[in-house]
Design goal:
112 residues, 81% helix
Length: 112
């Protein structure tokens, strides 16, 4: 009857006995193990998703950059020498950066 009328009394009574410390298991419970596995899987999926996005962006850079470079290389006759150099350097940078990103992304780490 006292526990229904005064729930705080029940809590104080349990805390003063400290029986909950002895009954608490020290090993991980199945729910904790499932939660850890789920979080680990989500982290792996997130990393793989990010890698796939980086690869897709690098391939898109190549698909856009190479035809763009070829077009402008065929139409350099209207520019002065300094503009030609700047144009070629700037246009070559996009496919080169895309290849560098692809190589670094797809490169497997060395095993130690």
């Amino acid at each position: 009857m006292m526990q229904r009328l005064a729930p705080r009394f029940r809590c104080r009574q349990r805390l003063t006995r400290r029986s909950w410390i002895a009954s608490r298991p020290t090993w991980p419970q199945p729910e904790q193990i499932r939660r850890r596995r789920r979080n680990r899987r989500l982290a792996v999926i997130g990393v793989l998703g990010a890698v796939l996005v980086v690869i897709a962006v690098a391939v898109a850079w190549l698909a856009w950059g190479i035809p763009h470079l070829v077009y402008h290389l065929r139409h350099l006759d209207v520019f002065s020498t300094s503009d030609k150099v700047a144009n070629v350097v700037g246009l070559v940078a996009v496919p080169v950066l895309a290849v560098v990103v692809l190589v670094l992304t797809l490169q497997r780490p060395a095993r130690t």
